[in-house]
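Exercise: predict the fold of this chain.
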Amino acid sequence: MGEATKPCPSCAEQVQAAAKICRFCKFDFERGVMAAAPPPPPRKSGGASMVVIVVILVVVLGICGIGILAALLLPAIARATRNAKITGCVNNLSQLWKMQHNYMVMFGGTERAMPSETGGQFWMKLTMTTPPIVDATLADVYNCPIKASPPGAGRTDYRGPSGNVNEYADGDAVGADKDGNHGPNEGGNVLRKSGDVQNVSANDPMWTHAERKTTP
């Protein structure tokens, strides 16, 4: 014998006789009305919002950190780059002086004399020997690395002695940067006959001495 049923007055579907609420339309048999739907579960938006906030904070702090590091590192990188170029300039003057000693041995005769030319021509003389001590097509040694543009063919960024270098004393300047090579009023490198090269400021006595003993 089948289980007793009853029709739902709302949807006319057959439900168990003992049912209090229609399983099809949720009609409440005792109250004679539709049963209220259960409230929806609460939205879990707080956690997602917090994650978004945390991500934004991490991104903002990261950008700020990169900006601070850049502000600290860029000046140091600029100084290191300039110091490297100054060292390259020192090496150029040192190499030119060593090659003048080669000239003295190879072409200086019995007196082992250096060229008597003055100014930049003293250095350019190294390209005029046979064979040339400095190949004119590979003349980077004549270029100050700090200066923006090269001096051009047959010219140099360095001053040479203003008189006969063979008559100079060991402490005399025989070569130096031209004014402005390292920037306005920045001084530059000075080469003495003893072979040492010093980087000096524009108000250093050595720079003033070089202005008297050397010429473009």
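Check your answer against the key: The beta strands are 5-7, 14-16, 27-28, 33-34, 158-161, 173-177, 188-192, 197-200, 214-215.
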